[in-house]
Amino acid sequence: MRRGLPLVGGLVSAIKRSFGGTHNAPHRPAAGGADASVAPAPAEPAARTAGADQPTSERILDALRRVIDPDAGRDVVDLGMISGIVVKNGNVHFAIEVTPEEGARKEPLRRACEQAVEAVPGVLSVTAVLTAERAGSAAPAAPPAPPRTGGHNHAHGAHGHAHGAAGHAHGAPAQAPKQQRLDLPGVRAIVAVASGKGGVGKSTTAVNIALGLAALGRKVGILDADVFGPSMPRMLGVSGRPEMAADGNRLKPMQAWGISAMSIGFLVAEETPMIWRGPMVMGALEQMLRDVEWGELDVLIVDMPPGTGDAQLTMAQRVPLAGAVIVSTPQDIALLDARKGLNMFRKVEVPVLGIVENMSYFLCPHCGGRSDVFGHGGARDEAAKLGCDFLGEVPLHIAIRETSDGGRPIVASDPASEHAKAYMAIARKVDAKIAQSLGEQARRRPRIVVE
Known about the structure:
Elements lengths: L10 H10 L16 E2 L18 H8 L2 E3 L4 E2 L6 E7 L2 E7 L9 H12 L6 E7 L30 E3 L2 E3 L6 H4 L10 E5 L7 H14 L4 E5 L7 H5 L17 E3 L2 E5 L14 H13 L8 E5 L6 H9 L4 E6 L3 H16 L4 E6 L4 E2 L6 E2 L6 H9 L3 E4 L4 H8 L4 H4 L4 H20 L3 H4 L7
Parallel strand pairs: 5-6, 9-13, 9-14, 10-12, 10-13, 14-15, 15-18
Antiparallel strand pairs: 1-2, 2-3, 4-5, 7-8, 11-12, 16-17
Helix pairs in contact: 5-13, 7-8
């Protein structure tokens, strides 16, 4: 089975179709897989005009009921395969839930679903993605599993178990996440930069840590995992679309300031809202990890969305994270949410590398006077209470804001500044922890030979 775009339903091409105004490619059955059938749509009443038609979730489901899964011989709605339908301004998004082993074999079914929905009056674009996140079939059972022959033999979303002729096959649910971990050949360590809430400067911190690691000689990539609020294109000063890699199945990351970068923001217009629900978000994150030609990297920094939702759980459970950096401001309300984020990573057994206190104090650009606008030292105290390292503090300063908004991160554009030095000190601590997790200490120490 080809491990490429079809595993998440050709997300990149789907995004380009959805927001680029182009039509879907002609339907071509996938080699080796049975083609899905679509029943003819009933004739529309003459009284309905294009101007009056507005697609609804009910009409989308009616259209999808005409799509028959050839493996089960029943329609995809009756089989419970459709989830996360979003309809907004004529743009339709939904997910098709399949088992992991079905993968590319269900690509014809995905295309058939898109074509059925395109026929609904008022629909301007359709994005359908395949999601394969259930663990029921991932754990091997002792006896051979019976072949799928239709009937009530499909997985049910979050239940995570398959119903077949043999009954409930639960397997070993505790081991399923490990068996489904994404493999990123060439990427030695993946570090998440997270926060419990938005507005604490997490993305600014993430990009400057990434550039600090690059300044220390690391080969670095950065993934913008905030699908709903991507900021890396602006912060790195990069525009344009990624190119396809030589294999035709993956994208090349964008290059800026000596690091590789990928963001959903490179694939859609900056003002375009991403009206996706959980399964589609998780599918997008997995594709930006797996279907990007990252090459050989020492570190991949992941700029996480704020909070402790689907994206964080997907990264923690599906990606072999070397650790997480928590960013917070000093005040109590931010530290409360940061504590939740830290505990989430601990519960899923991801090492917390430490806490960064951002906007730790304000330095007046005119007189140089210092003010503790949000208090000071709260993150350091919280790190001590929680038994994790305090990585450092970064001031609130107009130069950091201006360079970030201008696509010139301060570590790269003004490395001699005091603010860049603060980020570099944090990057050195993160680098040391990465080296420790990779067992690099022996290699990095000078070898003394006495003859």
